[in-house]
Amino acid sequence: MGLFKYKTHIRYQDINENNELSDKGILNILSEAAGVHSKNIRI
After folding, report:
1. Of 42, 43, 3, whose CA–CA distance to 33 is shortest?
2. Residue 7, φ and ψ in degrees, nearest 5
3. What angle do CA 33, 38, 40 make, to 5 degrees?
4. pLDDT (tens digit, 0 to 9) for every residue of the chain, 43 residues total?
5. What is the number of domains present in the chain?
6. How far is Cα 2 from Cα 27, in angstroms, rounded to an integer?
7. What's the predicted TM-score (pTM) here?
8. DSSP secondary structure code for residue 20 in this structure
9. Element (H or E) spanning 30, and its range?
10. Which domain range does residue 5 map to?
11. Whole-angstrom Cα distance, residue 15 to residue 27?
C-alpha cells in the first residue's frame, strides 16, 4: 500500500483567533482528503 498525498489550501474560516489551524479546520481538511482518496482507490 502506497502513501496518499493530498495538497490543499488553508481557508480563512479554518483559522482561529491565534492564527492557527482550528480543530474544525483540521477535520474539514481530513474529511476532504478522505473523499478524494476514496474516489481514487482501486479495488
Report:
1. 3
2. -95, 140
3. 95
4. 577 787 899 999 999 999 999 999 999 999 998 998 888 787 6
5. 1
6. 23
7. 0.74
8. S
9. helix 23-40
10. 1-43
11. 12
**Grid cell in block for residue 25:** 479546520
pLDDT score for 11: 93
CA max distance for the chain: 43
The SS3 assignment for 15 reads strand
Grid coordinates standing for 41? 482507490
| Model pLDDT, residue 4 | 77
User: Among 13, 41, 43, which residue's Cα sits nearest to residue 27?
Assistant: 13
The pLDDT, as a whole number, for residue 2 is: 72
Give the three cell numbers for residue 5. 498525498
The distance of Cα 4 from the centroid of its chain, to the nearest Å, equals: 12
